[in-house]
Write a structure and sequence with these properties.
alpha+beta; three-stranded antiparallel sheet; two-stranded antiparallel ribbon; 2 domains
Length: 165
């Protein structure tokens, strides 16, 4: 059963899929409608899952499920991966991008490969206060408080220590 994202419980489990490029408004609309239909019929062992999905910053697809109603099974979780793989093939975008995503000075999402991070810090493209996205948060409450965080509060802090040493 699909419900709007702002109505899903704070303890809902979430998965964040990062697109390899910025999505157009049309693509975001297509993904939103596709997710609504898919999540409305999403089930685990024939039991409906109370769930939601939304695209943020035209870059991140967030899927949530309220486990207090029903727990997703491994197969149902795999289904979400397949949905994003299929949508990705249709739109020519990779939703399994593992680059570092951050907000630049103009509040636009930028990404860097892992090999580019040290240089971006050295060039002060990423500073300790730069907002980065932690796509490993696992609940909506964590998403609300820790998804967007200063770089020096993430694993990137080790690079800032190296820079000042």
């Amino acid at each position: 059963m699909y419900i709007p994202f702002d109505e899903i419980d704070f303890n809902a489990r979430i998965w964040i899929y990062q697109a390899s490029r910025e999505l157009t408004e049309q693509e975001t609309g297509t993904i939103t409608e596709t997710l609504k239909a898919a999540l409305d019929g999403w089930a685990a062992h024939n039991k409906p899952l109370l769930s939601s999905g939304k695209v943020f910053y035209n870059r991140f697809v967030v899927i949530a499920v309220d486990e207090s109603h029903e727990h997703p099974s491994g197969c149902s979780i795999d289904r979400t991966v397949h949905w994003l793989q299929e949508i990705g093939q249709q739109l020519n975008v990779d939703f399994f991008d593992r680059s570092v995503a951050y907000l630049d000075a103009h509040k636009k999402v930028k990404t860097l490969s892992m090999s580019e991070v040290k240089q971006a810090i050295a060039d002060e493209e990423i500073t300790p206060s730069t907002t980065v996205f932690d796509n490993l948060v696992s609940t909506k409450a964590q998403w609300m408080t820790r998804w967007k965080v200063a770089a020096d509060r993430t694993w990137l802090k080790r690079y800032f220590r190296q820079q000042t040493a």
